[in-house]
Amino acid sequence: MGKRIKIGLFGFGTVGRGLYELLERIHSTDVTIERICVRDISKDRGVNASFTDNADDIFNDPEVNFIVELIDDADASYDIVRRALEAHLPVVTGNKKMLARHLPELIELQRKQDTALLYDASACGSIPVIRNLEEYYDNDLLISVKGILNGSSNFILSKIFNEGMSHADALRLARELGFLESNPTLDLDGWDSLFKLVIIGVHAFGIYVEPERVFTYGITHMTDHDISFAREKDRRIKLVAHVEKLPDNRLVMCVMPQLISRNKYIYSVEDEFNGVVIKGLFYDKQFMFGRGAGAHPTSSAVLSDITACLYDYRYEYKKMHNSELPVFDDNVSFRIYMRYNDPVDLQLLRFDEITESYTSPGYNYVVGRARLSSLHHAREAMHSRGLFIAAYPAD
Question: How many CB atoms lie within 10 A of CB 163?
């Protein structure tokens, strides 16, 4: 492609408008938005731009040489990205759900078409974690990637723990500030973090794991009792995504709340910020920190992907070519805290051992060791019965 990028933009929500505002602010001449496709063309958006509600208007426009897809419909996103690659149009997307479900196919398609697909903005907002995993951590020394990948849920937890705000009020404030997905369960139940973790797993360890295979649990059922327990133990609850290669070459992945102690980097990650801890065999731990939600932080990452294409940058997926890839396995034991409602709830989960328990008319919990496979098997039942669980590391 030439040295000038003329964008066909799909979506003009929080991030799409943020990208438009960034380009207006920097007065870019190398990158411009040619046309914007939206669902409702009759809506007044208060900007001087060329809008359409027909994707063909963008794909048939000879001036458009680049596609940016920023909509929240995963199926429509897939259609747009696939069509762009088949038309040899470089494309940037922020749709982590679509990527998590179609990434192997899209990797193969971009290789076949020799056309770039970039999506750093899909993983951690303003933190360039994917590009760092591709370029800096492109060897076998990497052990784990762990952190807060969802700025919206972290904002809510920060307001609860730091300001004593109720769960409902913190949720309302996050929605008012535009931090939540259109479907807030994506944030609160951990799915948003899961989709990002699946993408990160491909770039960190070269292995794609279907989202359905990864144990995922969120903070929807967290109550004042759980918050009090964390405070009594001098910890905070954080929604944490975790992928780790064990010494025997097994790969562990999960998303769940964790009771985080003060000596952990992510203990102090507040508000809509993300924090990612990358651990290596010889370089120990390195910490990346930045805004993970909001119009301009995320659109800045989108713009970074766009401008990278000015220099013909693309992901190489080096880890996928390793001779001995790790094998996903959820037969791994975790220490967990589980708050339950009725003694029958304890039958849902098989504990290897129970080290602490408490029972009262209004509050019951156990602390013990359970396997991810058991947690995964019991997830739907635990969720339907309103149970709360959190990983409870020793330190």
Answer: 10
Number of domains in the chain: 2
The mean pLDDT of 275-289, rounded to a whole number, is: 91
CA distance 134 to 125: 17
Q: Tell me: pLDDT of 1 over 60.
A: no
CA torsion angle for 349, 350, 351, 356 (degrees, to 10)? 40
CATH number reported for the structural domain that contains residue 155 in this entry: 3.30.360.10
The count of residues in the chain is 395
Q: Which of 270, 363, 309 is CA-nearest to residue 88?
A: 309
Q: Does the residue 94 lie in any domain?
A: yes
Determine how β-strand 66-69 pairs with β-strand 51-52. Answer: unpaired
Q: How far apart, in whole angstroms, are the C-alpha atoms of residue 260 and residue 307?
A: 37
Distance CA 251, CA 328 (A): 4
d(CA 115, CA 117): 7
pLDDT tens across 156-169, in order? Answer: 999 999 999 988 89
* DSSP one-letter string for 105-162: HHHHHHHHHT--EE-THHHHTT--HHHHHHHTS-STTEEEEEEE--HHHHHHHHHHHH
Backbone φ, ψ for residue 20 (5° rounding): -55, -45
Per-position b or e across 102-119, b if 16+ CB within 10 A of its CB: bbeebbebbeeeebbbbb
Answer yes or no: do 111 and 229 share one domain: no
Residues 165 and 252 in one domain: yes
pTM: 0.95
Task: Report helix, strand and coil shares of the chain as percent, to nearest 5.
Answer: 40, 25, 35
Q: Which domain covers residue 95, as residue numbers?
A: 5-119
CA-only gyration radius of the chain, Å: 22
d(CA 268, CA 117): 34
